[in-house]
Design a protein that fits this description.
- The chain is built from eight helices and 17 strands.
- Helix 3 packs across helix 4 and helix 5 runs parallel beside helix 8.
- It starts with 5 loop residues before the first strand and ends with a helix.
- It has two domains: about 190 residues, Rossmann fold (3-Layer(aba) Sandwich); about 120 residues, 3-Layer(aba) Sandwich (Rossmann fold).
- The radius of gyration is 22 Å and the shape is globular.
- It has about 325 residues and is of the alpha/beta class.
- The strands form four sheets. It has a seven-stranded parallel beta sheet with strand order 7-11-6-1-4-5-12, sandwiched between helices. It has a five-stranded parallel beta sheet with strand order 14-13-15-16-17.
- The structure holds flavin-adenine dinucleotide.
- The site of flavin-adenine dinucleotide has 29 residues, from helix 6, helix 7 and strand 16.
Length: about 325
């Protein structure tokens, strides 16, 4: 087995391991199997040991555990210092963070301390080679993400600064089914923090519930600027209700103020993979497609036959929303 291990920074949500961390463990497993190495993790908190076997079921073979009641809630400096300590001690080849509020806080601090490259918001990670002039770097992390406003997909490499580090948005990578027979080695660590490192204290956490659970929905019916008028939007909502789906939207639709940001699908919104995605009046620009292209079935309704959304739709309907959606609702109700 090679020593090019892939390490994941574990996050918690309401005392449970965050989905994004499980997604990253599963992605790390794929990368590690290409490198012939193992997946490790760093978990920081208080009384979290019992949660850790779950990481093992998803393919993590070893977790470095730091427990301290002062670490119960995320705070930037202690968490970043612990991740740095762990990387220095165990020399992972790749380190992955969620592109969450906490991941985006801690990852740049770690990268800056270790003078490593860090690519934010990757949408794909691969192991491959890269040649610059006469030098060929093998088995390096290819960090793939949209760049220049999504107009190109860039592959970013940092072959000379190990570890390679990347953040990945929630929902971009898939969680594979757990294997309950897998076990994990839990390595209890002592941190080297001083009282001065605990310079801030979390007094209260106020959670705002999401207005919609786009990620968990089996059916998403999304409104774009082609459904911007009141009647069309009402039809989109009615269609969603009829088929038992939730309402998503393109970014300009959300920007127009009719829905909260939680409804936005895409590169800077939520990544969804529902069984059915119905795009109503959405042109299908790359930034939108980045958040829904992996839906199992895509139906697109658009009056422009050349709209890019038709390039990825399984079923395309060319026509006006006001005409098509009532017919879909009627047909669906007649079938029940
Ligand atoms: C850095 C960056 C990040 C971005 N992130 C996101 C993101 O996360 N999510 C996102 O969605 N966008 C994002 N965008 C914006 C993206 O580039 C597009 O501008 C946006 O997706 C277009 O939204 P739309 O399809 O609703 O509107 P438009 O592009 O205006 O398309 C409207 C569509 O409706 C059709 N239409 C009009 N009238 C009707 C009708 N009566 N019946 C049927 N069809 C009709 C039109 O033919 C057209 O295709 C981002 C952009 C940048 C630069």
């Amino acid at each position: 087995m090679s020593d090019k291990n892939v390490m994941v920074f574990i996050e918690y949500n309401n005392g449970k391991i965050a989905d994004v961390s499980l997604e990253l463990i599963c992605e790390a497993k794929k990368l590690a199997s290409k490198l012939g190495s193992a997946v490790t993790a760093v978990a920081i908190g208080d009384k979290i040991a019992t949660s850790l076997p779950l990481l093992g079921y998803h393919g993590c073979s070893k977790v470095f555990l730091y427990e301290d009641k002062r670490l119960a809630n995320f705070t930037s400096v202690p968490y970043a210092k612990i991740v740095v300590e762990t990387i220095k001690k165990y020399n992972p080849y790749i380190v992955l963070f969620g592109a969450t509020t906490n991941g985006r806080d801690v990852a740049p601090r770690v990268a800056s301390e270790l003078k490593c490259g860090l690519t934010a918001d990757c949408t794909d990670l691969q192991i491959g080679e890269h040649d610059i002039k006469d030098k060929v770097y093998k088995d390096i992390l290819l960090q793939i993400r949209p760049a220049f406003g999504g107009n190109i997909i860039a592959t970013i490499v940092s072959p000379e600064s190990i570890p390679s580090m990347a953040t990945v948005r929630e929902g971009v990578m898939k969680i594979s089914p757990p294997n309950m027979e897998l076990t994990i080695e839990i390595v209890k660590e002592e941190h080297q923090l001083s009282a001065d490192d605990f310079m801030s204290e979390v007094l209260e956490i106020v959670r705002k519930e999401r207005s919609v659970n786009l990620k968990g929905a089996a059916i998403v019916v999304s409104a774009g600027m082609g459904a911007a008028d009141e009647d069309s939007f009402a039809l989109v909502k009615e269609l969603a209700k009829t088929v038992g789906g939730v309402v998503g939207a393109s970014r300009p639709f959300v920007d127009s103020g009719r829905l909260e940001r939680d409804h936005q699908v895409g590169q800077t919104g939520t990544t969804v993979r529902p069984n059915l995605y119905i795009a109503c009046g959405i042109s299908g620009q790359i930034q939108h497609r980045a958040g829904m292209a992996e839906s199992k079935r895509i139906i697109a309704i658009n009056s422009d036959p050349n709209a890019p959304i038709f390039g990825i739709a399984h079923y395309g309907i060319v026509g006006d929303i006001k005409e098509i959606i009532p017919r879909m609702i009627k047909a669906y109700k007649n079938k029940l």
